[in-house]
Design a protein that fits this description.
With about 240 residues, this protein is α+β, with helices and mostly antiparallel strands. Helix content is about 60%, strand content about 15%. A 5-stranded antiparallel β-sheet has the order 2-1-5-4-3, sandwiched between helices. The longest helix has about 50 residues. It is elongated and about 145 Å long. It starts with 10 loop residues before the first helix and ends with a helix. The relative contact order is 0.08.
């Protein structure tokens, strides 16, 4: 005969829920848009619980790939495992909000290796200060390290050039100067030099002298300036990439 009903106003509750949902989505968008790869590792479960889009872009793995991996350590280079383990132990034992940096290699999903600069910190602990969640952020520095190798090769080439310039180039110049001086002295005593011959011999000596000075300048100034310039350019480039 009758239906009895009651209701309460939950508008404010729904608005709060919507706001929380919007904030969560907003934060997720920020994390995925980050230039750094980001992963969250649950130390109690011993498994990855979150990665961002940049992580997948750099290494190729999805969260499901990491969670279902039979060997959790296969993503790291065998030669770096001890260093990584030591870093994690230091982070765990360090004060709250301590972040430690490192460089090591990740195995890309396609099988190649990527050098990465990492920062690791514990972002969640229990009431007894036991670590629960570990955050790792990293950037890919493979190209920068390859650039450094190329610059080192260039410097090695430059050093070889300096050796050639200091020996192979200066030796014939010394002979030109010496023989032109000897020829000038001999002709001056045995024959009477005309003005043209004397002028030409002096030009030979002057040209050899200028060339010797130029080679010396290359060794003393240009070489060092180039090396300093390369070093400065490299430092600036790496600083731009890591900030």
């Amino acid at each position: 005969m009758r239906i009895v009903g009651s209701s309460i106003d939950i508008t404010s509750q729904k608005e709060v829920e919507q706001q929380l949902s919007d904030n969560k989505k907003f934060l997720e968008n920020i994390i995925d848009a980050s230039i750094c790869g980001i992963s969250l590792f649950d130390l109690t479960q011993q498994n990855v619980v979150r990665v961002n889009q940049r992580y997948t872009d750099i290494l190729g793995y999805t969260l499901e790939d990491l969670r279902n991996a039979q060997d959790k350590l296969s993503i790291y280079h065998p030669d770096d495992l001890v260093d990584i383990s030591n870093q994690i132990e230091l982070v765990i034992q360090s004060p709250v909000n301590t972040s430690l940096s490192n460089k090591h290699r990740y195995r890309h999903k396609n099988g190649g290796w990527r050098w990465c600069s990492t920062n690791t910190t514990i972002i969640k602990r229990d009431i007894y200060n036991n670590p629960l969640i570990m955050l790792t952020t990293f950037i890919d520095i493979t190209e920068q390290l390859e650039l450094m190798d190329k610059l080192q090769e260039s410097n090695a080439y430059l050093e070889r050039f300096a050796m050639v310039a200091s020996h192979d180039l200066q030796e014939p110049l010394r002979k030109i100067s010496a023989f032109s001086d000897m020829l000038s002295e001999r002709l001056a005593t045995d024959y009477e030099l005309d003005e043209d011959s004397e002028f030409q011999l002096s030009r030979i000596r002057d040209a050899a002298g200028r060339m010797r000075v130029m080679v010396s300048d290359i060794l003393k100034s240009e070489n060092l300036i180039f090396k300093d310039h390369v070093s400065i350019r490299l430092d600036r480039f790496l600083a731009e990439q890591f900030t």
